[in-house]
Structures are given as structure tokens and as C-alpha cells.
Amino acid sequence: MVVDVRLEKVTKKFGKTIAVDSVDLYIKKGELFGIIGPSGCGKTTTLRLIAGLEFPDEGRIFFGEKDVTFSKPYERNTAMVFQNYALWPHMTVYENIAYGLRLRKLTENEVRRRVKQVLELTKLEGLENRYPTQLSGGQQQRVALARALVVEPEVLLLDEPLSNLDAKLRVEMRGELRNIIKTTGITAIYVTHDQEEAMSICDRIAIMNKGRVIQVGDPKELYFNPKSFFVATFMGKSNVLKGMIKETDPMFVELDGLQLRLDRKIDDKLVGKPVYVVIRPESIKIVRENIDYAENIIEGEVTSISFLGSHYLLSISIGSIVLQAYAEASERLSKGDEVKVRIDPKDILVFEEQD
Amino acid sequence: MFFISQASAAFVYFTVFLILPISMILVAAKEYGLSSLVQPHNIRLSPIGNLVTITKVGESLNIRFYGYSFGTILNSLIIASIVTLFSTILGVLVAFVLARYDFPLKSVLRILAIIPLLMTPFVNAYVIKKLFGPTFGYNTISWLLSTVIGHDVKLMFAGYSGVVLTQIITFYPIVYLNVYSSMNNIDPSLEEQAENLGAKGFRLFRTITLPLSLPGVMAGATLVFIFSIEDVAAPIIFGVRDVLAYQVYSYFQGVRVGLGNPEAAGLSLVMLVIALAMFIAIRNYVNLRQYAMLSKGGRWKPRIRKLGLKGLVAIYLFVFPLVLFTVSPQIGVFMLALSERWAETPLPQGFTLKHLMGLFQIRGVFKAILNSVLYSLAAVAIIVVLAISTSYVVSRYKLRGISVLDYLSTAPLAIPGLVIAYGYFYFFHDAFLGTMLDPIVNPALPIIIAYSIRRLPFAARSIFAGLQQTHVSLEEASLNLGASRLRTLTKIVIPLIILNIVSGAMISFVYCVAETSVSITLGGLGGDITSPTHKAPISMAMLDLITSGRVESVHLAAALGVFLILVQIIVIVLITLVFKQSYAFIGV
Ligand SMILES: Nc1ncnc2c1ncn2[C@@H]1O[C@H](COP(=O)(O)OP(=O)(O)OP(=O)(O)O)[C@@H](O)[C@H]1O
Ligand SMILES: [Mg+2]
Predict the structure, then answer these.
(1) What angle do CA A317, A322, A328 make, to 5 degrees?
(2) Pick from A78, A86, A90: which is nearest to B189 by CB?
(3) Tens of pLDDT along B161-186?
(4) In what order do the strands lie in the sheet with A284-287?
(5) Residue ranges per domain, chain B?
(6) Does domain B356-578 have CATH number 1.10.3720.10?
(7) Which of A311, B18, B405, B422 is deepest in the core (most CB within 10 A)?
(8) Is the ipTM of this complex over 0.85?
(9) Which residue's CA is the nearest one to ligand 1's atom 28?
(10) CATH 1.10.3720.10 assigned to B48-289+303-347
């Protein structure tokens, strides 16, 4: 059975630390929902509250209509994939996966059938009789996933399931993981501190900081319309500059002598006030010819350049400002070159404060 | 070069004082002929005796446990198996409750659970006999029982059953401590995962917690088995002669007049083989499965669960009384030491400090204390040097075969003390006849050396742990600046692990002072303890006092027990509270 999950004003304290602070979340049926945020922001605790491994000090948790706030972990029918996989070292892959099924009192035939099915889904055929220590990191990860999926839980909970893999495998597993979860159509909550991973896997994402949910939305919305400085800088690499709003119609922000036009509505009373300006490196485009009609064209000098394989990472200094930008690997650039760049007005984000 | 010379020196010491004396047992056993080992008095397949007799004398119901005799060798094996089984069940139960649940008075239970490990050789077995053993009137438990249920019941454990009872009470904390530390090393997410998938209660325990703590269970159970086989105190007190330990011990009773038990060599060899087989079996078993946890990603604080009502009732009605019952010998030792008289009555009578004063006033007793302290200090000096050099070499010098040293420094834990005593006697008496090293002339040196071998593992473990915690780069920095290995060891390494060294030394000291097997065998050759110049250590004096038959002497032995308990408590407090180190009770 697929259910929706609702957290209402959930708070959890450990002594003086408020790990989760009045969190409201709504996760739709069958949704693959991400929770991201910096280390220690309360992601794992939120997940453990949903699993029943911790109980909240305040607030309520619902699976569909059912209030599960204080149900025991073994009463909830969730399945969790732990950050360290938590594979039982004294059981084979088969026994690990069959464990939850046996608890559900299925016949041995039924157990065998369902384990076989999930082994196929997770591409683990042939490894049934290995012990966890005899598996690679990626295989261990899939066993942990298989063990959780096989019990057909109402909610699947994943705590940084890819963080123990090396960088390359981590990227490879993303698509695979999403496919497997989507095939089962289950409601899943996916915790990670890697925003890129969350954006590539999840349908919607909640960003947490210091125990609070800061913003919820689909990946594009969070990336292009961050509601706060924190969200803007957390989602991807960014240039952070101090500036001042000059005018509001059309809107201009002044950065150290440089005037840039903005493309969003800004409160009149901000005029003359200092603000934080966030510009993503990929919003800074190198232009070769003069394009008269475009705004926000600036000249600067390449002060450092590093080759990253598919592209360059540049530092471009404009007066006293230094901006990080990307350039195609095909561009012939070297240190000291004069370049012209254009920043699309709609890609400039402005925030009143650094929260 | 430095490592080679250190390793060789340690190796020579082990060869001369461990391997050689023990190999002598083989020679001796051959002389006596192994065929006599299968005689009925050693292995009897049709047992004699009975397990329990229930009689009614008037209104009184008498229940007397005794046990069957299957011959010396089988008796030891059977007793050890029963003791191991019950100790394991009790130890695992207490460990599980303490490691996973929270309940009021938990810290009390935790302290109670290690009290039985406070060693008081012979006296605790004597007290157990007073509390639960055969008497003409009421033992303490019968008196309590009769008073509570208002009906006359006499319950007593005699013979083999008394030995079994005593050993379970004394040894179960060894299982408890090993299992407890195993359980604390289980990554909590392994259990949380099982709960998350629907497991709870006993199922969770049986399928996850217990299998994952198996290394601790196996280690604890093996040690209990070995300790039971080598324990000589309970058989002496309960008058059970047909067990291995008693037979080997009895060899020494006639030795001064040249009448040692001729079978002692063969039986020592049997003891050694059993103990080593157990030790090797579990080493292989534990290594067979890769128990090393896969990754250390999760949180490491085990989740402590609150107990439900049923659980609380079970703890207070079952676990607490059980553990209290195992503490009764230590309480009894104090009562005995502080009472005027405890003969035919269920409880001791009169309060006096005279026995405690006697420790210092009665010259033979005071001499025993001095002897023990002297022997132990000398042994500890050797132990510290030996433990530092073996641990240092083993932890820093990566050479195939160097692990033999590691084995040699832990093996004495598994070698029954009586086997060492027998080997030492044979070796020193033959090889150094008539010299200062001949135990018949003066047992002091052989005792010191035997202590140093037997108690080495305790210090070695503490020091090894310290070395593993200090990073090699600190030494490399010193070597890099041109210091020699020796200089680096004395100026850098030793100061860094000084707390581990001192703790290790103190633990070894305690275990030397309370040592039994060597003390009552080689120590028994050191003259009568009533003479002010005798060479016997404390345990020997305690045995003498308890078996002398004089009422007064038993109280004096208990006073020595109190002295030992105090020494142990002081050391535990110093190590854990002042040095903040872990006190390594017996465990693997
Ligand atoms: N059992 C606990 N006892 C005390 N404090 C805890 C406990 N668990 C979590 N905390 C604290 O609560 C806060 C949130 O922890 P949590 O593990 O949920 O963070 P997280 O977002 O998962 O971080 P990470 O990305 O590092 O895994 C932290 O400050 C942490 O120290
Ligand atoms: Mg976490």
C-alpha cells in the first residue's frame, strides 16, 4: 500500500540541542522526496523520527490517515536504508534480504520467490550466498536497498545511501537508484547532503538548516527561485558579492562601481540598502562579438584558469571584484586574457541578508 | 637490530620459563605411562553416586544435591561443561539487560555484577559452603527458606553440586564482561535495521544481537571452561577429590617426603591439552566468520531502551535476586572476618575487629602478606619490561612470525595454573637441584617467575592498547631527528603510554597477590606458615588457615580475604577514576 506522509510541527531535542525544530512536511503518495542540508542540520533525525527509531518531543506524524507518532519501529512498515548499509555480517545476502519477509510469516516458497524478484530488480543475481564482507561497496548498497524494498514497505527511507561509494560509482548509481524506486512506485524519502545528487534523483526536495525546513520545491524551483540566501548558496557553486540597490524601475544593483540590471521585483524600500548578490558561475557567459542590445556586458581579465576536463574554471577580475565562471574546453583562453562576459539579468539573485 | 634484540630477549624468556617447563610435563607423563589414564578411576562410564536425595525427617523436608562420579577426567569435563553452560546463560542475560535497557537502580546492578570477580581464594568457596553447603543444622539458605515459607526445609549442595554452584557464582561475570563489551561494539544500526523491518523482543535478540556478540560469548565461555577445569579451591573446600585439579594439587602434598602422586604428570598433560584445545578452537571459530563490522558510518551510541512493565517485573524479581545471590560470598567474607563465631548457626555471631588486627599481629600471617607483596612486586617489575618490549615489537615491527610473540604473551591466560606449577616444579627441581632455584630449597624465585609468566597478559593487553592509540608518526619524528630506537622508546613512547603501563602494572599486581595455583603448590614447599620465616604467600596461608580445622583460623583467613578485596578495590578505583583507563578484568 502506498501512502502519503505528513509531519506536523515535529520537534526533537537531544538535551539542549534542537535537532529538529517544528518541522512541517507533506510527502505525496509515490513521491521520491529529498531532504538536503548541511551536516548536523537534522536530516537523519527527521528520518529516524519517521522510522520510529526516535520519538518526537512535540508534533505528530501521519502515514495516510494513521497517526504513527508514537508507534514502535516494528509496527510501522517502513524500511530504512542506513548510511552504512547495516548489513548483518553473520548472514548471507539471501538471509539478509529474506529476514524481513520471514518476520512477516510468509511461506518459504513465497520468500524465495520475492527474494528472487528483488535480486533481479537490483541486479544481484548470483550473489545470494556471499557474506556482506565479500561484496563491493556498490553491491552492498544494492543489498541494503533490496532488503528494504523486498518487504514492500509503505514508506522507503534512505539515509545518504550513496555516501559510502566512490565519486564515480556514486554518480552511476543515481540513475539506477531512481529507476528501481520508481519501478516499485513506493513513497520514498531520500536524505543526502549532496544537492546535485538530490536534484538528479528526487521529485521534490526540502532544504533544512539548523533543524528547520527552509524551503520545499521541485529541483528547478529551488535552483532558479531560491527564497533565501542560504538556499541560493547551498544549491550549487556561487559567487557571493556585497552590493547596493540603486533603482527599482528598472532595477539596478551596484557592485563596487559596476552596475548590473536585475530582472526581478524588489521592494522599493530596499533602495540604497546593502544587499547580498548571488551569481552562479554558469550564469556568466563569455561573449566574443559585441552584441549591442544585450545588457550586463562586462569586461574583465582572466586571473586564473584551471582545466577540469570538460570545461575550464576561470577567475575573472573586474575592478576589485573577482567572479568564478566556466568556459567551454574549446575556448582558447589563457591567463591574462581580456574577456567580455554577459550576465543574464534573470540569473542574478539578490538577498537582503545572509541567513 | 633493536627490534631483533628485543624480540630475541623476550623469546628466550618465554622459551626458558614457559615452553621448557611445560614441555617437561610431556617427559614426565611418558615416564608414568599414559595407559593408566584410561583406568576407571579416571574415566568411568557407569557413574556412581546420585544427583539428589530427598528425605523426610519428621516435619522436615531434606533436599540434598550431590552428583555422580564419572572418574577424575570425565568429572572435570562434566563439571566444566555444566558450569560453562549456566555461567553463559547468566552472563549473557545480565550483559543484555545492562547493555540494552534502562531501568531504575541500573548502576547498582552494574556494580553488583562485577563484585563476584573480587578474588578471595578459598574463603569464598568456604562461605558458599556455609551459605548453601552441607551442615548438621541449617545452612543459611535453608534457614531463610524455612523462615519465609514457615515450613521446615533443608536445602544443601554437597560434593560435585557444591563445586558447580561455587564455580558458577564465581565465574559467570567473566562471560558477562566479555559479552557486555561485545554488545557495546555492535553497530547500533544493525539492530535498528532489524527493528525497522519488524523484529522485536526475543526474536531480535536471537537473530541479531546474540549472533553478533558471539565472539564475546565464545571468549567468555572458553575462559570459564578453562577456569573451572583448573579451579582447585572449590574441590578442596567441598572435599571433591576425583577432579583433575585436585589430583594434580595433591601431588605436592607428598612431595617433601618424596611421595608425589604418580599420575600428576599425566593428569597435568590432560588438563593442558583440554585447555589448549579450547583456546585454539575458539580462536579459529571466531576468526572463521568475518565479524569485523563492515563500516563505521552510523552513530556509535547504542540505543538504550526503556523497559516495559513486564520487563521491569522480570528484572526486579529475577535478575536482581540472581545477581544478589552471586554477591553473597563476598558479603559472607566480610561477615566472617568481622564476627566472633560462625559455626553451627545460620548467621555469624558477635562483632570483632580482632581478626583484622590479627593480620598484623600474628607473625606467620603478616609474613605471608609480606611474602606476597614482595613476590608480586618483583614479578611486576619483570612483567613491565617484558610487556613493553613484546607489545612494542608486536605493534611496530611488521615481520612474519612476530605474531608468535603475541601468542606467547597471551597464551598463559589459557594455561591452567596447576600445569605451570607442576611444570615448574619438575623443571626447577630437576635442573637446579639443591640451588636457590630449587623450589624445595627456596620457592621464592620460581614463584616470582611463575607469577611473571601467568600475569603477563594483563599488563601486555593494557600496554598494547596504549601503543595502538598513539600514532607511529610521533616516533617517526623522533627517529627522523636522529634518535636511536632505544632513546625513542624511553623518551617518547614510554612517557606517552605511561598511564597504560601503570594501570597494566597495577592490574598484574592485583592478580599476582591473589594468585592461587602456583602459590598453594610451590608456595606450600616454603615451610609451615606458623613459623615466622616461612616463604608461603597469602593464598597458601588462607588455604592452611581454612583447612586447619581451628575455628579461629577460618576468621583469620576471611580477614586475609578482606585485605585482598580492599587491595583490589583500591586498584580498580585508582585505574578507573584517577587514571581514567579501563580496568581489564579477565577477558579476551
Ligand atoms: N542521539 C543523539 N544524541 C545527542 N545529540 C544528537 C543525537 N543524534 C543527533 N544529535 C544531534 O542532533 C543534530 C542533528 O543530527 P543529525 O544526525 O540529524 O544530522 P544530519 O543532518 O543527519 O547530519 P549529517 O549530514 O552529518 O549526517 C546534531 O547537532 C547532532 O549532534
Ligand atoms: Mg545524517
Answers:
(1) 75
(2) A86
(3) 999 999 999 999 889 888 888 888 88
(4) A284-287, A338-343, A297-307, A311-318, A321-328
(5) 48-289+303-347, 356-578
(6) yes
(7) B422
(8) no
(9) A40
(10) yes
